[in-house]
Amino acid sequence: MKKISIYEVGPRDGFQNISTYIPIEKKLELIDGMVNAGIEHIQITSFVSPKAIPQMKDANDLAVFCKKKYPNLGLFALIPNLRGAENALKYGINNVSYVVSLGEKHNLANIRRTHKQSFDEFVRIKNECPELSVGLDLATAFGCPFEGKKNENQVVEFLKRYVELGLSYVCLCDTIGIADPRQVRATIKAVKQAYPDLDLQIHIHDTRNMGMVNTLAAIELGVDKIQSTLGGLGGCPYAPGASGNLATEDVVYMLNNMGYETGIDVDSLVRLSHRQMEIIPDGLFSGHLLKLPLSK
Ligand code: COA
Ligand code: ZN
Q1: Which residue segments constitute the domains of the chain, with CATH numbers given?
Q2: Lowest-confidence range among 46-55, 138-147, 241-250, 284-293?
Q3: Is 171 known to be catalytic?
Q4: CB-based contact 16:45 (threshold 8 Å)
């Protein structure tokens, strides 16, 4: 049966929106629970300015600890610049997601860079950190909070020079949850046609209840790497209203029942999701399974 890999991004995309600092032991407890439930790829943090995202001030320590505890796991982290790339390597993380927004205004709000500046920085990262495996998280790939809807041609055109320089993957991120299955299909078809060898991932926010249908649309077109967050914790501090990613336990429930192989135990994840709600009482959760009473 076809294997679908879950890329859990809650410790980055979820935690970054929580204004109260989550103590590092609690973050590690949740990451440990994810590993025990069978998740093999976890975006554990981001190497960003602690002034921009104070929640991530413990990135270095967290990376060192996780790398030591899970040396063979697919740990990765988000970076916005060369400084982040250097820190990732220094603290043992060899796989990073370089984040750029298709909407230039969102890029300016989030990363404080124009598209040209972001690309120039990518070139520097490729030149100065050749040992780093760099993928692209393309934020606002389906629509931007400031510029409105995007289309597949814009995605293909934007990716061109990045793909030419080499990327370990591209993740199409619906940062504000604005896509629908038709747009997801059109975008994936166009990207696959333009770059047949590109490794594609999808990352859908559930803002308009489209998380599951859009993710399934991507899977049915052959995308086998899904980014999601435990409990559907998520959002983007610079994308107003972008609350809630697709919940990992919900998508795993669907996939396991459909006969896909995820290697992940849903019951363990649901329990962990309840524990996460205790740890992060001020979180916004878009998940559904976690609303059901917990079986004893
Ligand atoms: N890690 C840690 N610190 C960093 C850093 C990094 N990757 N990049 C920059 N900094 C520090 C600088 O050293 C500087 O510190 P100082 O004020 O003590 O000297 C400060 O952050 C500002 O640096 P500067 O290069 O002027 O950046 P900026 O103010 O233009 O901000 C970013 C640009 C990209 C660093 C910042 O906007 C950022 O980290 N954004 C991340 C946003 C994010 O994670 N969004 C959610 C993910 S989609
Ligand atoms: Zn996101």
Answers
A1: 5-291 (3.20.20.70)
A2: 241-250
A3: no
A4: no
